[in-house]
Amino acid sequence: MPAFPFFNRSAFSHLLPLTCFLPALITPGEAEEALPELTVTADRTLEPVSRTASSITIIPAEEIEKRGSFGLPNVLQGVPGLDLYETGGPGTTTSVFLRGSTPGQTLVMIDGVRIGDPSSTDGSVDLGGLVVTDFDRIEVLRGPQSALYGSSAMGGVINIITRKGTGAPHASMLMEGGSYATGHTRASLSGSTGNLSYAFAVDALYTGAFPRYGYRITRPVTIGDGVTPLPPLPSEDPTRKGGFHGRIAYDLTQDASIEAAIIGTSSSIRFDNPYAYNPADVFNPLNHQRENFLQGFVQGKADLFDHRLHNRLTFFGNVTDRSIWQRQSCYDANYNAFDCERGYHGARLGAEYQGDLELGPFGLATFGLRTETEYASTSQAPAPFGTFEPISASQSTHSGFAQHQLTLFDRFDLTYSGRVDAIDYGPTFTTWRVTGAYRTAETGTKLRAAGGTGARYGSLYQRFSDYGNPSLAPEYSIGYDAGFEQSLAGGRASIAANYYENHYRNLITFDSSASCTSVQVFGCYNNIGRAETKGVEVAAEAVLVPGILRAQASYTFLVATNLDTDQPVPRRPRNKGMLSLTYNGIADFEFEARGYFVGENPDYDYTAGQNVMLHPYARIDLYAHYRMNENLTWFGRIQNVNDARYEEVFNYGTAGRSIYGGLKVTW
């Protein structure tokens, strides 16, 4: 295990000690207030979080609503082991990394359905285009999870779970506005009547935002030639996003039900092209993107044998369409540049059966089969002869998985699982995972450990594009983690810590020295990469003063190394953390101060072709809401209250001090 670095020159010098000693700050009170017990689906079945041996973070609905106006990046910030990078503000391309893995090695799902774009280079998810409509919770599951969730779950899984309707009909309308000409509206309706439950929501956002490239950067910035100074920045680069969600369920009998859900999002952004060689093209208004996403599923559930066998059959599908207009970005046969539109279409269709068999004292057996077909196609308009080769490809994956969960002596929770994935006309690969947790109710201690393998097969672009290699082998990883969770002060505080390692091989990397087919002259994709990630994650929360003051903190130490070059992997900071204090001492009023701290972060300057190191930074956000009565709540927030100048991606700007406010009406 690596030694912790010294933090004398950054805000981290006080974060970790405060995280570890939060419980010592607890003030005794007459009324005890315990932290809530949550349920999760980390093992593909609903279970108390105290029973899972996996490393998991749950973000509840109230936290999602508080921070989700612009989308998911602000919601997910502060989760241990997770990194997010926006390329210039709301709606722009946003990559997610879990435990140092790449975006393509991080599986993102909505209601258990994978949402990565099959037409993208690595099949990963761009979180920038998603809209927060009506989410019940988000589960962030860390560590290799391919044994249960298949390809891409090498670094972990982010599962976004939409709300189900319950109780009497309930409706709400949220409206807010603020800095950068921002306006945001969200409306929802949910409830149940008899055997029917329902939940519907819509969301719309407009923000003038700020120039993506060069905004609030004090050093000299150049265009793509690495020499010419950046021209004057435009006044704004607008973002428009909207989305809807609907979910209904009907109980056919006491033992059978059917459920259907649909979710859709649409986004339109103007982006900058810093790699243009003509200064006028960098901020040209023609540079814009539109993206649409639609997903639906139908699921039937049935219990048999006196509720001992739970059956679930799901049919699912999603589609992603992107259109990108860009100035002077396409070339004719003589390499003369012209304006063009590029189109990307990715789709996914499939079905999955899962059975859960209760074995009494012998635990729970989970097993299932899954088939999924991915499609990808690209287009260009106009497309002169000899300059553009469209992709039109598909691949099907057939999978089987099994898991056994067993509790011994009412203290030791053991889980072991395995999976086989077979790709038509491609490779077949197996993965496994074993977890164990020992709980002692007397001391509130849980000791946990997990180990397993991850895998990811090549994307359609990596296999079938001009630079593709149909013979690619899957990427593989093996990883483990171990740690503890400790409840303190009668359940009013908790602390958790994990150490983990992941070793990657057969990584799919572009190889400029290879030609995989007779028509390739500039290289192709090959299994030539190796990497290693290891680190420590710490999280703590406490009720400091019952009914008045609560605290949360997290810290991540990460070492991510490219073993081929022995260099740090870009955009994986070694040190980062979060600290939050929430005050509830006035009736119907809540105030939260939340700070984010990020240490030095390696990145790459593509205009100059060299490695760079981004400076450490600290950012503080303030949130407040006041419930006037049963129907009306006022809320507001100040983001980056300390007006920190920082970069998530080299030369791409981030917002300065920003103020937002609004109201929520419920009935």
Write the layout of secondary structure elements.
Elements: H1 15-20, E1 39-40, E2 47-48, E3 55-60, H2 61-67, H3 73-76, E4 82-86, E5 94-98, E6 106-110, E7 113-114, E8 135-142, H4 146-149, E9 156-162, E10 170-178, E11 182-193, E12 196-207, E13 239-251, E14 256-270, H5 279-282, E15 288-304, E16 309-331, E17 337-358, E18 364-381, E19 392-408, E20 412-423, E21 428-440, E22 445-456, H6 460-464, E23 475-488, E24 493-511, E25 524-545, E26 549-562, E27 567-568, E28 575-583, E29 589-598, E30 601-605, E31 610-614, E32 617-627, E33 632-639, E34 658-666
Parallel strand pairs: 6-9
Antiparallel strand pairs: 1-2, 3-8, 4-5, 6-7, 8-9, 10-11, 10-34, 11-12, 12-13, 13-14, 14-15, 15-16, 16-17, 17-18, 18-19, 19-20, 20-21, 21-22, 22-23, 23-24, 24-25, 25-26, 26-27, 26-28, 28-29, 29-32, 30-31, 32-33, 33-34
Question: Can you offer a commentary on this structure?
Answer:
With 667 residues, the chain is mainly β. The chain has a single domain, classed as Maltoporin, Chain A. Helices cover 4% and strands 55% of the residues. The strands form five sheets. The chain has a 22-stranded antiparallel barrel. The longest helix has 7 residues. The N terminus is likely disordered.
